[in-house]
Amino acid sequence: MDLNLRGRRALVTGASKGIGAAIAEALAAEGCDLHLAARSEDALESLARKLRETHGVEVTVHVADLREPAALEQLATAEVDILVNNAGDIPAGTLDQVSRDRWRHAWDLKVYGYVDLTREFYPRFCERGHGVIVNVIGTGGERPTASYIAGGAGNAALMAFTRALGGEGPRHGVRVVGVNPGPVATERITAMRAANSDVDASFAALPSGRTAEPGEVADLVTFLASSRAAYISGTIVTIDGGLTAAQ
What we know:
With 247 residues, the chain is of the alpha/beta class. The protein has one domain (9-246): Rossmann fold (3-Layer(aba) Sandwich). It has helices at 18-29, 41-55, 69-75, 100-110, 112-128, 149-168, 187-195, 199-204, 214-225, 243-246; strands at residues 9-13, 33-38, 59-63, 82-85, 131-136, 174-181, 236-239. Helix 2 links the parallel strand 2 and strand 3. Helix 1 (18-29) runs parallel beside helix 2 (41-55) and helix 1 (18-29) crosses helix 9. The longest helix is centred in the middle third of the chain and has 20 residues, at 149-168. The protein starts with 8 loop residues before the first strand and ends with a helix. The mean pLDDT is 94.
């Protein structure tokens, strides 16, 4: 299926590894030119070289901490058709385990980072009458637990943000959608497996018997960003192999 993305331009945050890097790869494979943002310059440059050589697309690297207003302002100068908000890693822990400063530090990237970057691009998309914003959120917002309270609360806020803006955007030719991944085989999962021998058994007990691959999430994001999903806005798609439905 041709997703009609060739020649489009996308900004992907948190693009140096994991889901973000997979999203960049999937978009590039469809012929989409890219702006990639993350804090790791070496990882970004390595990925950019690979995408240019493999897919022949233009790739611009932005070494940026999205907690910093100056970084957001610099990213906002990029001329793009698609914004993929993906940067962030909110720690697990109960209310007493996640300190005030740690909570705020995490939300400055995952919650306010999404809101502030959307604030930069959404009015421009509306003014020109087209654009897509995809927020990569997480299933923690669907079934919040006390053991992941900062993440669950942050994800729930982003789900509400996505639905609210996604219900208004189409009036201006702009779509806003969300993706809620469950467990994904990223470096974080690899570290968990190395630290705890019980983790593999817990993943084997998932309805699908495994975690998702980053590319599976990336394929969904790429479809939602494309004109093939032109009638989808204000919707959040869960990709967790049935985990949320089974609980």
